[in-house]
Amino acid sequence: MCGIVGLYLKNPALRPHLGRLFTPMMGEMTERGPDSAGFAVYREEGGRNEAKVTVCSMAPGYDWSALAAEAGESLGAEAVAEPASNHAVLRASVDAGSLRDWVEAGHPELSVTSSGTVLEIYKDVGLPADVLDRFGVSQMAGSHMIGHTRMATESAVTTAGAHPFNTGDDLCLVHNGSLSNHHRLRDWLREQQGVRFQTDNDTEVAAGYLTWRISEGASIAEALEAGIRDLDGFYTFAVGTRDGFSVLRDPIACKPAVMAENDDWVAMASEFRALADLPDVEAASVWEPEPGKIYSWSGSA
Amino acid sequence: MTVETIDLDAAGVRALNRRLQGRDGPVAGGHFIVTNAKGRHALAVGLTEAMDVRIRGHVGYYCAGMNREADVTVEGNAGTGVAENLMSGTVRVTGDTSQSAGASGRGGLLVIEGSASARCGITMKGIDIVVGGSIGHMSAFMAQAGRLVVCGDAGAYLGDSIYEAEIFVRGRVESLGADCVEKDMGERAADGLQTLLERAGVAADAREFRRYGSARQLYNFRVDNAAAY
Fold it and tell me: What ipTM goes with this model?
């Protein structure tokens, strides 16, 4: 089943309260996905333009400050790590790709959940309310968040199998549904295009597919458009971008989605009840996205 | 006339349905206002007596399912399967509905003032559905009886594998499903449609609609196949 939610705050005055507004949206989707939860938060921090990589350790008590010191030394740049539960955000004044490559090359005990300059991705197994609490979401500020509550069908209940999946710098994907051609597509992407995968998860294949399309020069909309042709199965996708998000449902509309917008925010969810606590929602414009049509919202547009 | 208000934030869905199903005292002829719907599922389901229920705000899945006799109005949008298996009475949605509105309904009237998404009236068995806006794909799939009236446009594969139901569309039909064909309107059908539009409170002229139904060419309609059973 799974539940997905997205919230972009147009009104800068609301941005300090992003996490507080987002928490009930995720909680309301617990019945659609009680086994794991994850979320992506986008926060610009006072023009800081350094690389930001979120990393996750399965071993408790990981020494994050040692990791930061080692990163700083090898990359010749100032690096800091900010722990949150079993994740940490590692920052360094280099480009995001270099920082990600450095972690992946030298620290196979860690998994990288996101890379970019504004994006952070956190995910774990457990009830959504517990996962959000672990990462202190209700205190988080930022411009937008994308989240997922998981009821696993295609692969194991693990932290790595939880969404969102990073699909390139400052890009992420969440998915409600299941893909039926993921085995063959994963093999093709891995063998023909050199895309790396960490799990047997079907959504990771969709994420890898979008990453590959974007690396070939496609825009998000173009990559999703191509996905309608190449991805077989049931899906509602929400894609987080640096300044907004996109939504796409499969052409026969197997999986639900609802969108809502007013002057202060734009939001999407699997069901309206996830939006019911947003400020002034009863007066907002609320609609069901049409199947096979890409809806994009970008703050800079 | 006394009006009983039920606040879902305080009472919850089970208490609401207990009350409206008459399990906490008489309900016939009553007037109820339901507040703080907040997209909750299965509101006002299984009602069996004549009463008036107004639900304030958007509702979730399967609102007013299996309704008999009661008139239920949703002041907002409705999620999947509104008025599913409607038996009699009236369900009115002032906004849009998600997919499978009026699915398998056996009688009564469902009025959707906005638009309905995919599979509206799927396997309908006698219900009348009037949609002020447009409907999505695969609507009236395997429709057996009743009428589906669309003031706007219809999505792809309208009326696929239809039996004896009638479909009326004022706007454009993207495509017809297997065995669904356009038919002459005829005076009797037009008169019946005009009466239905008036009953639904929709200001439209029946003569602006086109009528669709079954060509009766699929397997089930061929007497030669009767021996197979």
Answer: 0.92
